[in-house]
């Protein structure tokens, strides 16, 4: 009862909760600048439930996992818990959220197996402006504003240097297609399953233009647009992996939504 009541009150300080939700239970540190501080107190039950469940199921079959736009580390932790043999790399350029992701990974005993780097992924190498709006989860390289920090950007092809990749999540507030442009060699070679956000139909079309040339089939929406939390997430897989994608997604929908 108290946990439910507290979930609607803002927190002026850092707190640590035991998250008790499918697909993985873990410790989560929330801070006053964390946009997930409310939903984490409800065990993330309303935040991308099908996407998180799908990612856990896919991670069980993935040796190398990449989380681009890791935020506070939830997806990285989920993958590492789902598959103890998986190597997880997380990228989070927002300095505040980078520190929180490192803390959350450490709290769950995953340091060394899940690595976080304070780098932005894009289609070019160099220093770029990361714009910081009021909501920390909406930090972006795409839109401009008065508050920003300079961060290092690298194309994934240069960052990974040929390393294998089997599963990938991309959530970078409108810059997903730029991430794909900088990863064409990696994606063409390894064709990982990709969970990606597309905030607009135009961005989804840009993603399709790139990925279709790399052997990917049309994207599958995680859930119909009427469903809360998962409505702008899409899954991409190569033509040969399309049946596996649909199998995993069907299982995730059944497990995540009673």
Provide a descriptive summary of the structure in words.
- α2 (49-59) packs across α9 (242-256).
- Mean pLDDT is 91; it is low at 1-10.
- The longest helix has 15 residues, at 242-256.
- This protein has 258 residues and is α/β, with parallel strands linked by helices.
- A seven-stranded mixed β-sheet has the order 5-4-3-9-10-12-11, covered by helices on one side. It has a three-stranded mixed β-sheet with strand order 6-8-7. It has a two-stranded antiparallel sheet with strand order 1-2.
- It is built from nine helices and twelve strands.
What structural class results from the helix and strand content? Answer: alpha/beta
Distance between the termini: 22 Å
Radius of gyration: 17 Å
Largest sheet: 7 strands, mixed
Low-confidence stretches: 1-10
Strand order of the largest sheet: 5-4-3-9-10-12-11
Number of helices: 9
Order of helices and strands: HEEHEHEHEEEEHEHHEHEEH
Overall outline: globular
Quaternary:
single chain
Portion in beta strands: 15-25%
What is the number of beta strands? 12
Helix content: 25-40%
Mean pLDDT: 91
